[in-house]
Amino acid sequence: MKDSTTPRIVSTIASATEIICALGMRENLVGISHECDYPPEITDLPVVTQPRINIHVSSSEIDQQVRNIVKDALSVYLVDSQKLAELHPTHIITQDQCDVCAVSIKDVESAMCELTGIDCRIISLRPNCLADFFQDLVTTGIALSAERQASELSNYLKERMNAISIASNTLKKPTVAAIEWIDPLMMSGNWMPELIEMAGGIAAFGQAGKHSPAIAFADMVAKDPDYILVNPCGFSIQRTIQEMHLLQSQPGWSDLKATKSNKVFVLDGNQYFNRPGPRLLNSLEILAEIIHPKVFHFGHQDTGWVIPTKPMRA
Asked: Which pLDDT score is estimated for 117?
């Protein structure tokens, strides 16, 4: 039987859920967000959040919904305060890196204001770059009295990631454009430029530690990158393929170096890349085996990434 000091954790972001489980604390999770879907054994837990928007429409429609909500000074997400009261959490893990991409600390604090009699600690993560992710591991470990597990996990991930970085260091470094949103066109920022560099490439757009920049397609044509990776935030491979025609119909697409050399790839932006959790290691592996297939083979093709062989429409 668990004693009264046993943590009862609610995670409002998918990456934190993955961190908690990687620390061996799955049994301490009592609630998750609507976006939490990994590892599979957590999916039967109570869900305490929901989006205000319809997430099953096109990327342009999602963007417009978000803009309208933000314009009205509303939150993109709702936190179920009644459900929180029923779960009696001792810890709620959230983030303050982006109010649009996931449930934020403001959403959690708003819900907590409606509750009384709950002694709960709010842990807010801010992963703007790779170093921040490793700091979040430490922060989470300390808050949950799992410092040793956090240290071991951090060391393991760093060792595996550094090995890839060292192996790619002497290889030719092509330019890589990673697309985080299709319409409007946005390029991957934050930790992605670092991962691309560690995988043996050069990020054509975006800066480490900075939010994802919006660009015009003319900027893509001007850069003419060697590789184009399409990994929209929250989109599966299949859903991304359904929107590839928006890129393929752009003037100049067929003349791009990456297009002509069949170096355009669709990546799982939902499970990898946009979640600053332990699977950033898998994200790096995917990047490495795409950019340098003769050197790296991790077996992620068809699950983490595919080659779109022809224009596809929804």
From this structure: 60
- The reply to whether 261 falls in a domain is yes
Tell me the C-alpha distance between 73 and 147, whole Å. Answer: 38
Structural domain of residue 252, as residue ranges?
Answer: 171-300
Number of domains present in the structure of the chain? 2
Give a yes or no: residue 132 inside a domain: no
Check whether residue 284 and residue 231 sit in a common domain. Answer: yes
Is 102 in the same domain as 16? yes
Parallel, antiparallel, or unpaired: how do β-strands 121-125 and 29-31 relate?
unpaired
CATH code for the domain of 267: 3.40.50.1980
The string of DSSP letters for 225-266 reads -SEEEE--TT--HHHHHTTHHHHHTSTTGGGSHHHHTT-EEE
Other residues' Cβ atoms within 10 Å of the Cβ of residue 57: 11
End-to-end CA distance of the chain: 51
Q: Which two tokens stand for residue 252?
A: 């100049």
Report the candidate in 244, 174, 269, 186 with the shortest Cα–Cα distance to residue 220: 186
**Per-residue pLDDT tens over the stretch 270-280:** 999 999 999 99
pLDDT tens for 125-155 read 989 999 999 999 999 999 999 999 999 999 9
Asked whether residue 305 is assigned to any structural domain, the reply reads no
